[in-house]
Design a protein that fits this description.
Layout (H helix, E strand, L loop, with lengths): L7 H18 L1 H9 L4 E5 L4 E6 L2 E6 L1 H7 L5 E8 L5 E8 L4 E8 L1 H7 L3 H23 L3
Antiparallel strand pairs: 1-2, 1-4, 2-3, 4-5, 5-6
Length: about 140
C-alpha cells in the first residue's frame, strides 16, 4: 500500500480511532477536551507518539499499533478540532505519509461516537441508553401499549 494514497474515508476513520485511544488513556481529560470551546489539537509523530491537547489539558498515548495497521509509514499527523453549536466535533487534518501528504475535513457526531467506542465512558453511555429503553418499554407495558 506504500505506493498508493490511503482513501480519505480511511483517514477520517483513523481520526475517530485516535480519539478512541485517547478516551482509553484518560476519559476525563479527553471528555473535557472534546466538549471545550476553542481549538483542540491532535498530533501523532513518526514514532507513533500521540497527543490530544487544548485548554482543558493534554493526553499522551501511543498510536503506533494503529499506524502499523494502516499499512503505511506515518511521518506526521496534525488535526485541529473544534466543537460545533450542536456539540459535534468539526476537524481539519493532514497526514504526512512520507510519499504523500493528504488533507481531510469532517465532522464527528459525538453522540454516535460515544455509542460506538469501547472506553469506559462509552460503555456508560450505552448502558444508560439501554436502561432508558428498558424503562420506556416498561412504561409502555404499564400504559397497555
Amino acid at each position: 500500500m506504500e505506493s498508493q494514497t490511503l482513501p480519505k474515508a480511511e483517514l477520517r476513520l483513523t481520526v475517530a480511532r485516535l480519539l478512541e485511544l485517547s478516551y482509553r488513556k484518560d476519559e476525563g481529560i479527553t471528555t473535557r477536551l472534546v466538549q471545550e470551546v476553542g481549538n483542540v489539537r491532535l498530533a501523532v509523530d513518526e514514532n507513533g507518539k500521540a497527543q490530544l491537547s487544548g485548554k482543558a489539558g493534554s493526553v499522551e498515548f501511543s498510536a503506533s499499533k494503529l499506524a502499523s495497521e494502516l499499512g503505511v509509514s506515518i511521518r506526521r499527523v496534525k488535526v485541529l478540532m473544534s466543537v460545533t453549536d450542536s456539540g459535534d466535533i468539526r476537524y481539519n487534518g493532514s497526514f504526512n505519509l512520507g510519499y504523500a501528504s493528504v488533507s481531510i475535513t469532517g465532522t464527528i457526531d459525538i453522540d454516535e461516537f460515544l455509542r460506538s467506542c469501547s472506553g469506559l465512558l462509552c460503555y456508560a453511555v450505552r448502558l444508560l441508553e439501554g436502561q432508558k429503553r428498558e424503562r420506556d418499554r416498561q412504561l409502555q407495558k404499564a400504559l397497555g401499549n
